[in-house]
Amino acid sequence: MVLISTHETRAFLFSTLLIAQLFWMARADVHFYDFILKETKVTKLCETKSIMTVNDSFPGPTIKVHKGDTVYVNVNNRGDYGVTLHWHGVKQPRNPWSDGPEFITQCAIMPGTNFTYEVIFSDEEGTLWWHAHSSWTRATVHGAIVISPESGKSYPFSEPDDDKVIMIAAWYMGDLKELVDEAMIEGKDLPHSDGYTINGELGDFCNCSQVTTHGWYVDYGKTYLLRIVNAVVNAELFFAIADHNLTVVGMDGGYVKPIVTTCIMISPGQTMDVLLTANQPLGRYYIATRQYSSEDAEVTGFDHSIGSAILQYRGNYSLPSPPVFPNATLPLYLDFGAALRFTNQLRSLASEDHPVDVPGDVSTKMFITVSMGEIYCPNSSCTSVSGNKLGSSLNNVSWVNPSLDVLSAYYRNLSGSYTADFPDWPPSMYNFTGDDLPDSVDMTYQGTKVKVLNYNETVEIVFQGTNVLKSSMNHPMHVHGHNFYVVGTGHGNFDSKMDPRTYNLVDPPHVNTFGVPKNGWLAIRFTANNPGVWFWHCHLDRHMSWGMDMAFIVKDGGTLETSLRPPPAYMPPCMDMGSYDISMQTSSIDHVEMQQL
Question: In what residue span(s) does the Plastocyanin-like domain sit (predicted)?
């Protein structure tokens, strides 16, 4: 870290940076949104209950911007408990203070208080989304983000006639917060959903839902850009529209080589941009989704419901009854082949206007096991068969939330919140995907461990799925503050000599969320070029709740424009800072110096 020696020099550099930032902002737009969090009564599946919403809406408001814009969202919490919001896929350059995950970059916005997020868009283009990032509140607190090309620029495909946001979410009977809190205390299985909604409605195949099924009117001959978001809490999904082809052109706020398909498989957290041409006989067609279950066939306790909406052509004609269903194109729950065939086609556009920059020389390599497991229960409160708590882990470390968020502790150099010793390798090597694993690998231990990376460090991570507790399944891994390139994936145990030869370094998908396949591995690469504290976790919230998480710290790069910004004037308070020890380090001096400018 280069220390700035004089106040005059610091002031000059800061002024120069400020002028550059103002020049950039002058080229983009600034938007303002007010989000009011409150309890709203909703009736679904024949049950009326209260849910947390934003602006009385489920799903919440859609944020619309152009590439490079900035958004200020003032969140006023009038609900019953603390909440944070995350801007999923927005990299927030140098600004983790507004990234949102509770205990990682902030503490909760408590009832009766407000907090303003500064959401800074950079190279994202397409569709992303926002959601609550505290407990399972995101089940009902979420919405889409539509990012159009910069003014004067166009899509890398023919301009669609219109676009349509499709938010797919999970619906739970009862009080979800109470159910999750109780399950976490007792160490038992977490709730499974009771239905899937499309734009807030369950559709014709669920009880008490036929009257409110979401409808979408289209004109024959027009092409529409569907912005599909999987906001479901715990399930990967198949999605199809009866008798219509889908052309996938974007994913996770970037563009991909077009894929013509009759169905997609989309993981929780992922977004896809899909072109649909209304070229079928006038009528009504079901838009349908059902869960893709990657667990063993013997596991049957998942949500078997079908979420549906109706695409209806405008015009004068006799309505067929019922609408056409995609029987031939919507895969069944356990169709591993259909899921694999789709994901294997994903490639970055890799064009002159939308190039890739895959790290070639890697400075840091990590091998991370992604496992279910058990956590020792010190008393009789745990109700599982083994007497322990269900858990999950990365490299056998099950994440524990600190009482002071990691970002504040890092910025102020307060010890006691986390340790900087997340392991690069698992504690032991074994046949990770074997059928008869020793009992010794079942237990995991808890910790709040982070990985520290230097600025611009190039990183390769191989995520290795395991069959611990005979519970192998897909794990959609999500990173905050960065995108990563999916350079390889495969079945079985990763072979460090042979499998890298199969890497795609030409046009790999550039995403923020991608699945570690059941009993397989995922290899990714990225450049750590965004200073701050960033969360990495499985986007199945049951696994995230059990500890399949970690955080990494990207150190400052030596200049103001490559360093973490100072915090805003107000952050939601956490706790008495007196319980943390101050240990001054070089990086902390730099942060303090910059904050005084």
Answer: 38-150, 163-316, 423-556
